[in-house]
Known about the structure:
308 residues; alpha+beta; Urate Oxidase; 7 helices
Amino acid sequence: xxxxxxxxxxxxxxxxxxxxxxxxxxxxxxxxxxxxxxxxxxxxxxxxxxxxxxxxxxxxxxxxxxxxxxxxxxxxxxxxxxxxxxxxxxxxxxxxxxxxxxxxxxxxxxxxxxxxxxxxxxxxxxxxxxxxxxxxxxxxxxxxxxxxxxxxxxxxxxxxxxxxxxxxxxxxxxxxxxxxxxxxxxxxxxxxxxxxxxxxxxxxxxxxxxxxxxxxxxxxxxxxxxxxxxxxxxxxxxxxxxxxxxxxxxxxxxxxxxxxxxxxxxxxxxxxxxxxxxxxxxxxxxxxxxxxxxxxxxxxxxxxxxxx
Length: 308
């Protein structure tokens, strides 16, 4: 286990942490609570430093930055934690929520969480900090022929950590629905071929400086399938999609190889882990492939981080 420097006991009134107040909280109420015993701040005698202590499953409205730099409101599920020194009995869980509440009202989340992680370390007096944000991201997506547009949803995850030396690690996670058409079925059949919805799942290491957007990563991966799927199509679009998939047959192995080549060419990507899974239409099982290159978790294995 790495050496963890003892963090100061956080016994000062909470208003001393923030220079400005928040409309949702009364600073006067914290004056009352600050006179009560701070049990979390007691000294622990067992000499066991903890990798993580914090909060999980926090539902919070946030704003994330789109590819055009405009904010998009999202409903997020958040995990926040810090490393806990051996001498500290517990962390101050309310401070995670206070900080997150403030950020939800005053910040737009980019793909670089360094500032929030630094604030976590500072406000909790901690050596390390970790965050994970799961949310559904929407992109306007036009049908290929009619041009009719509707919003398409993508499950996204932003995961980051800041270690004791302020080294930042960031991963972006995506789940992208697409379509595959079986090359074997096309080859052996007199007409037609079985096709199905598939999903590309990716965990992507983002290199510093972080310049990529969710839109860029989604588009780069989506185009590696037989054909994208669309939230709104007319008959002319359906004809186009059917024929495009038929002319572009792919096994899951083909999709994951093309996705690998695409991510290799993405500036700002330093490593990745990929899965492609097809919900086979004529088989009683799914087809699946996985591949990783230079993928590094948001913290080194020595830190023992749990990934909720």
